[in-house]
């Protein structure tokens, strides 16, 4: 695999997360505009582009940075020894800045007010448990597919998120950078700032739990 500079790696994480959030928020705005008030159709219009773009982005940027686009994934990789702790903070910073940039781009594309704060409360035990489950499943998918069928990772992640949009009550944020960035969009995909911290805590706990289960599967028998 080619060696890339730190700058190239961080730009990869920035661009990948930016495109991911531009897709999540942009498709949410488009879906809400054309769905005629049908929330189910709007959610479907938000789901399909998100799953599809993940396949593309992981295929594009995976060889450069590993295509984390997600601080929970970065945390899990550090726990598993796949990357050094000192590299984690720059990854997370690139993801957060990229995510916010992607949201701003989505607003510009749809002629929305660029700077926004979401008013959409996502609160309650069911929502938090959903984020634990969504992130647990995502990280476990990544670990096990990379170990046993690495060339399927882009498709596996894209399909997992497509499904998790529908089987979780929270519509599967499963990503702290996505959660923070979506708080800056008062659109279909938004989340109120007061709802952000519990989501992120649930996501990080889910990522750590997935790593622990992966280590169980890796243990020698």
Fold and architecture overview:
With 221 residues, the chain is mainly alpha-helical. The two termini are 32 Å apart. Helix content is 72%, strand content 0%. It contains eight helices and no strands.
Topology:
Elements: H1 6-34, H2 39-65, H3 71-79, H4 85-109, H5 125-148, H6 153-167, H7 176-182, H8 196-218
Helix pairs in contact: 1-2, 1-4, 1-7, 2-6, 3-4, 3-8, 4-7, 5-6, 5-8
- Counting helices, strands and paired strands, the structural category is mainly alpha
Query: What share of the residues does DSSP label as strand, in percent?
Result: under 5%
In oligomeric terms, what are we looking at? single chain
Summarize the biggest pleated sheet: none
Roughly how many Å apart are the termini?
32 Å
Helix content: over 70%
- The chain-level mean pLDDT equals 97
Order of helices and strands: HHHHHHHH
> What's the total number of strands?
0
Q: What radius of gyration results from the CA coordinates?
A: 17 Å
Number of helices: 8
Low-confidence spans: pLDDT under 50, at least 5 residues?
Answer: none
Shape: globular
How would you sum up this structure in a few lines?
With 221 residues, the chain is mainly alpha-helical. The chain has eight helices and no strands.
């Amino acid at each position: 695999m080619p060696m890339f500079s730190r700058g190239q790696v961080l730009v990869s994480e920035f661009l990948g997360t930016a495109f991911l959030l531009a897709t999540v928020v942009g498709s949410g705005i488009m879906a809400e505009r054309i769905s005629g008030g049908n929330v189910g159709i709007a959610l479907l219009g938000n789901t399909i582009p998100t799953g599809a773009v993940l396949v593309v982005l992981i295929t594009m940027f995976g060889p450069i940075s590993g295509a984390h686009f997600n601080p929970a994934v970065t945390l899990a990789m550090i726990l598993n020894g796949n990357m050094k702790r000192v590299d984690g903070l720059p990854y997370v910073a690139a993801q957060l800045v990229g995510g916010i940039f992607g949201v701003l781009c989505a607003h510009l594309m749809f002629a929305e007010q660029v700077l926004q704060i979401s008013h959409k409360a996502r609160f309650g035990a069911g929502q938090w448990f959903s984020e634990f489950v969504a992130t647990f499943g995502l990280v476990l998918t990544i670990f096990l597919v990379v170990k046993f069928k690495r060339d399927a990772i882009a498709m596996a992640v894209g399909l997992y998120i497509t499904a998790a949009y529908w089987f979780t009550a929270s519509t599967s944020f499963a990503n702290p950078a996505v959660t923070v960035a979506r708080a800056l969009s008062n659109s279909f995909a938004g989340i109120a700032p007061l709802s952000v911290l519990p989501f992120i805590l649930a996501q990080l706990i889910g990522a750590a739990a997935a790593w622990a289960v992966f280590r169980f599967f890796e243990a020698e028998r």
